[in-house]
Amino acid sequence: MSVIGIDKEKCSNCKQCIPECGRGYFYVNENGEVVFNESLNTCNICGHCIAICPEDAIITKNLNDVETFPGIDSPETIVDYDKIYKLIRAKRSIRRYKAKKVPQELIEKVFKAMRYAPSASNARKWRYLILSNPEKIEALSDEIVKTNYAYMGFQSGEQALKYFKSIGRSIFYKAPHVIILYYRTVEKNATMIGFRANDAGIALTYGMLAAESLGLGTCWIGMVQGAVPMNREILDILDIKGMVLGAFTLGYPAVKYRRTVPRPPLKIKGLD
What we know:
Blueprint: E1 2-6, H1 17-20, E2 26-28, E3 34-36, H2 48-52, E4 58-61, H3 81-90, H4 104-115, E5 126-131, H5 134-147, H6 157-166, E6 177-183, H7 190-213, E7 217-220, H8 222-227, H9 233-238, E8 243-251
Antiparallel strand pairs: 1-4, 2-3, 5-6, 6-8, 7-8
């Protein structure tokens, strides 16, 4: 996939691509024409040149999901603030699910939303795993409970697991699906870990809000990513390698909430 040039028959020479490209691929030549610098090899395929070009003059290779639709140049006309604010206020972390699988077409819509989440330098290094097998989900829950026993206030992993079994509880709340975001590369640099974590949080939030709009419920399960560094056997259960940086449950809520919940005011400097 790549951006490979400018269609000069379409180009109106508006020059909007020049300041939009942070890698310097577009410039004005001695004839005053916008040209594409073919000698560079640093494009991260952010797509902003494609998005901003009014004439659709950017030539691409194997970038087939570019589209336009009414309101794309004015997103506030697609969903106004009041509606998206109400969706955010209405969203709850769901811990009671119906014993009903989510149809594949809805799961695919959740993944489709996460596909278009931004990431640092458009790295898009994340990978996803979805678990829908109840036995595998339970086995994963058991291993995480045993690993995180101290965090949950138990004296041993066996004690924690025995208690969870006695109350019929799973850290995944018996959800029919669990979505896990991971990276094949284990970052060593703290800054890069921070970038990857930020990317994961944004992507999974996209997915959780998309799920909300489809009548589905989700809950971020932080104990998954917390347990992996302490117990690498969890990766064997998941049959993946690398670094897990996020997971959430997915299913049909077995409960309806009637009111929003209270939250303290934000502490903000400089807003006067």
